[in-house]
Specification:
The chain is built from 3 helices and 3 strands, in the order ββαβαα. The protein is an alpha+beta fold and 107 residues long. The longest helix is centred in the middle third of the chain and has 11 residues.
Length: 107
């Protein structure tokens, strides 16, 4: 995926040699020092959060490890156990998500 210089989220796909889809993911470019001490130590390098489906995350992790070539400096860490994601979908999802969510308002 071509991720520009600013922060943002990009939908991307891993393709096989034949052009078939191996996995689809979202890639978020993070601000410096956003995720882990390892990222903070490398603050002059871009950092990303890649989200894959639960059923494919191990496959995506192995694709990422295979893509890191010699001479590249990259970390791949599975943070599935530390983060959660809730999907809100449907025709009124924008309306539901338009109101700010505050931790204090949640049970």
């Amino acid at each position: 995926a071509a991720i520009g210089g600013g922060e943002g989220i990009t939908y991307a796909q891993f393709l096989s040699e034949r052009g078939t889809i191996e996995a689809d993911v979202t890639v978020t470019r993070l601000p410096p020092r956003a995720l882990t001490p390892a990222v903070a130590a490398a603050a002059d390098h871009p950092s990303f959060l890649l989200v894959a489906t639960d059923s494919a995350h191990r496959h995506v992790e192995s694709l990422l490890h295979a893509a890191i070539g010699d001479g590249h400096h990259a970390f791949v860490t599975d943070v599935s156990g530390a983060l959660a994601q809730i999907n809100v979908q449907g025709p009124r999802s924008r309306d539901v998500l338009a109101a700010p969510l505050v931790d204090a308002q949640q049970p």
